[in-house]
Design a protein that fits this description.
mainly alpha; 2 domains; two-stranded antiparallel sheet; 71% helix; 5% strand; flat
Length: 259
């Protein structure tokens, strides 16, 4: 769990971590828009491969990347299967399961592959952004874009205390396992229900303790955010260059291939 959510790699000194977080956020947003609006899977897959190549170049452990991609890959597989058997009219092949005949369609397969490519492309962008930028720098950049202070404060508190709740839930689950709470399906269901309820109760208790602690430390409704420096010439040039590259790639893959 530590490997899955660790952000220690964001504090390395490399070319990506030295870029202003506002520039990285704008580039990531532009890339996300290009990926999710792409009409063909080529651009999202190209972005996916490029981001994974960049992550490998940063020497991020392959185990960490695999852990973070495991759940999204299963989601992509489900999307492709559902679309293949639900959407379209041109049959590819048929399967018989439990008396039901399922027919795969060519249009559904193409649509499923497109949706899956979009998910993988968007995920790789967010993953690379999270590896190259500490969370507090992202929150600071959001304030630089005039995002509401209330929303940024909520995001900061969520990011901070989700790990506290995860630790608490992990301790409770370990105690349940020591007491043979997951040895049978019915007992496992009862243990999981108790775990979920205890975690919710703990979250309310933690919210009260956190609020009291913040009030004692001078919190009066807003958190102070330091000003960000003006973008340097290097960052402005990099932003203009990469936005141009993204726009050109989007135009090429949208129209150039069939042009």
């Amino acid at each position: 769990m530590f490997d899955l959510f660790s952000d220690i790699f964001t504090y390395r000194d490399n070319a990506l971590t030295r870029i202003d977080p506002r520039v990285k956020l704008l580039i990531a947003l532009a890339a996300l828009i290009a990926v999710v609006t792409s009409a063909r899977p080529v651009l999202p897959l190209a972005v996916f491969v490029l981001c994974l190549g960049t992550i490998a170049a940063l020497r991020i452990p392959a185990k960490l990347v695999a852990l973070r991609l495991a759940a999204p890959f299963s989601t992509v597989a489900i999307l492709v299967v559902i679309q293949t058997f639900v959407t379209g009219t041109t049959p590819l092949f048929s399967l018989t399961l439990g008396g039901w005949t399922l027919t795969a369609k060519a249009e559904g397969l193409r649509q499923g592959l497109l949706l899956g490519a979009r998910v993988l492309g968007a995920l790789s962008i967010v993953l690379l952004l999270g590896i190259a930028t500490p969370a507090h720098r992202i929150f600071q950049a959001l304030r630089g874009f005039r995002i509401s202070k209330e929303w940024v404060e909520i995001a900061i508190l969520m990011y901070r205390y989700i790990f506290v709740l995860m630790d608490r839930a992990g301790d409770l689950a370990a105690a349940q396992r020591l007491r043979l709470g997951y040895t049978a399906p019915r007992r496992a269901l009862a243990s999981f229900t108790a775990l979920a309820g205890a975690t919710v109760v703990h979250s309310f208790e933690q919210a009260g303790r956190t609020h009291d602690a913040m009030r004692l430390r001078g919190y009066r409704g807003t958190m102070p955010f330091g000003p960000l420096p003006a973008l340097g010439r290097r960052d402005r040039g990099l932003l203009a260059l990469l936005l141009t590259v993204i726009a050109a790639a989007y135009g090429f893959f949208a129209w150039g291939i069939t042009g």
